[in-house]
């Protein structure tokens, strides 16, 4: 059912916890399944120097959180914003169709943290991030 990469990132998740001296934080959730993802980042000079996550959810939610942090760590904000849920799922060698929403949450958590970073800088994140990732506002 799950690929070896999904099982590896679930059993040995990378970047778990909270970034010390974070200047970006985002939290998203899926009310249908109950998964909650929180990502914290330290962004310096437009680059994600450190990123960590805390996820409450199923194995696929943990695996997608772990993979997403690996895919953006050390990259620019622009590169992180271009990361799609499809790319996260592909990096894990696929997810079962009923678990694809986990990769969507991972993408949204990254965008939520980056939106928070821009807000802290006094910049409206909507034109940059595409939305403010206030899912309750958009999807409620």
Give a brief rundown of this model.
The chain has helices at 4-11, 59-72, 77-81, 85-91, 100-120, 126-129, 135-139; strands at residues 24-29, 36-44, 47-56. With 140 residues, the chain is of the alpha+beta class. Helix 2 (59-72) packs across helix 5 (100-120) and helix 4 (85-91) crosses helix 5.
Helix content: 40-55%
Beta-strand percentage?
15-25%
CATH class assignment: Alpha Beta
**Main sheet attributes: strand count, strand direction, barrel closure:** 3 strands, antiparallel
Average pLDDT, all residues: 91
Span from first to last CA?
32 Å
* CA-based gyration radius: 14 Å
Which structural class is indicated by helix and strand composition? Answer: alpha+beta
What is the string of helix and strand elements? HEEEHHHHHH
Envelope shape: globular
Beta-strand segment tally: 3
CATH architectural designation? Alpha-Beta Complex
Order of strands in the sheet with the most strands? 1-2-3
H/I helix tally:
7
Domain count: the total is: 1
